[in-house]
């Protein structure tokens, strides 16, 4: 009798274990799959339900960044980018971005590459740079247009693509067409004008300010409410700091995502934006949402800056792409330095950007070129 009871008990235990494995397998199969972004969300129309990346450990790279490509930067150059009358060939522009994405993600399809970091339901903000509305010194609209086309091919709804910057007048002066409608790609700004006395809210800033180092500021509502993913699209240019010449690139592009006021200007820009630039980029809504950097290096400004100076532009015919903003800026600075070294005619100061070293200390990326995998592709065929 005891042996029989023991046998029944063993069978019962085996059945319990079997049922546990069955339910675990069943539940796993029922979990919806998505892109490798660590962010299974169902964003609302305003996109403000995004789940933060790695909230428990900010030092861990976001899950959407494949570890094997974290500090890879791709430079693609294409002399065929220019058409008649110095216009940009849209087919060649798309080709450049596709090649860069394929090299970056080690894939054969830009569509699949974008799906690694963006889900079809995402609202994608293309954060361009139209500083002072200087057309020759801004992110080319054709670059934003070409990337938008590739995003649509990857399944993003056209009206869920938002090209944006801080001021409406700057965007328009740089060649962008504002679109607030429910049709086509949207083009929005936070304010109507950059100049404070003329500025009125367009999409506006958040009501509440957040702490940034020893000061505070408000975030653009476009960043917080209208987009779930950001693609950072800076311009490759130098910055004439008080002491050094450095780079004004991906890290500093996000100054336009916050409200700059007389009260916070000194703290944010002091000491050549160090540590202000790193503190701004380290804001969770900026750092965690930014999935890709596409730097416009078609006609970089290799001296002066950030204000335009026509005598210091050159046709580099390139883009610089990566997912590490610090690495992209470090590589961009090396490109600018090489351009300067080739120019001759004068002694060009070496470019120094201490805010990039600080950005690395803030766990925003890698600033040391020796630890960055740089891939260069020349599309001269």
Characterise the protein shown here.
The protein is of the alpha/beta class and 381 residues long. Helices cover 33% and strands 17% of the residues. Strands 1, 2, 3, 4, 7, 8, 9, 10, 11 and 12 form a ten-stranded mixed β-sheet that branches. The protein has a two-stranded antiparallel ribbon with strand order 5-6. Strand 5 (210-212) and strand 6 form a beta hairpin. Helix 2 crosses helix 4 (141-153).
Please tell me the CATH architecture by its name: 3-Layer(aba) Sandwich
CATH class: Alpha Beta
Distance between the termini: 86 Å
| Main beta-sheet annotation | 10 strands, mixed
Q: How many structural domains in the coordinates? A: 1
Query: Can you give the mean pLDDT?
Result: 87
Share in helix: 25-40%
Q: What is the CATH topology assignment? A: Rossmann fold
Look at the helices and sheets and give the structural class: alpha/beta
Relevant terms:
12 helices, ten-stranded mixed beta sheet, alpha/beta, 381 residues, globular
């Amino acid at each position: 009798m005891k042996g029989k009871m023991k046998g029944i008990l063993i069978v019962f235990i085996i059945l319990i274990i079997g049922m546990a494995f069955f339910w675990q397998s069943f539940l796993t199969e029922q979990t919806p799959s998505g892109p490798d972004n660590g962010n299974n969300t169902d964003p609302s129309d305003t996109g403000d339900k995004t789940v933060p990346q790695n909230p428990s450990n900010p030092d861990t790279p976001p899950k959407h960044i494949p570890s094997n490509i974290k500090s890879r930067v791709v430079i693609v150059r294409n002399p065929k980018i220019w058409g008649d009358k110095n216009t940009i060939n849209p087919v060649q522009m798309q080709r450049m971005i596709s090649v860069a994405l394929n090299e970056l993600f080690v894939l054969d399809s830009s569509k699949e590459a974008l799906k690694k970091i963006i889900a079809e339901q995402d609202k994608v903000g293309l954060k361009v740079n139209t500083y002072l509305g200087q057309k020759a010194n801004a992110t080319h609209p054709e670059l934003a247009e070409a990337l938008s086309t590739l995003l649509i091919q990857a399944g993003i709804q056209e009206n869920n693509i938002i090209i944006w910057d801080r001021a409406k007048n700057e965007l328009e002066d740089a060649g962008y067409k504002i679109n607030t409608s429910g049709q086509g790609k949207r083009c929005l700004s936070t304010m109507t004008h950059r100049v404070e006395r003329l500025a009125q809210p367009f999409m506006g800033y958040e009501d509440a300010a957040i702490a940034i180092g020893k000061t505070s500021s408000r975030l653009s509502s476009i960043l917080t409410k209208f987009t779930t993913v950001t693609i950072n699209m800076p311009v490759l240019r130098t910055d004439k700091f008080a002491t050094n010449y450095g780079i004004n690139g991906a890290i500093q592009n996000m100054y336009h995502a916050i409200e700059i006021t007389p009260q916070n200007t000194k703290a944010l820009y002091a000491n050549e934006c160090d540590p202000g630039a790193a503190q701004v980029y380290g804001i969770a809504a900026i750092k965690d949402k930014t999935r890709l950097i596409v730097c416009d290096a078609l006609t970089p400004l290799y001296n002066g800056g950030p204000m335009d100076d026509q005598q210091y532009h050159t046709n580099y015919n390139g883009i610089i792409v990566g997912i590490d903003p610090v690495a992209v800026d470090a590589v961009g600075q090396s490109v600018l330095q090489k351009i300067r070294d080739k120019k001759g005619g004068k002694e060009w100061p070496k470019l120094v950007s201490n805010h990039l070293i600080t950005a690395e200390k803030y766990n925003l990326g890698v600033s040391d070129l020796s630890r960055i995998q740089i891939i260069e592709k020349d599309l001269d065929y």
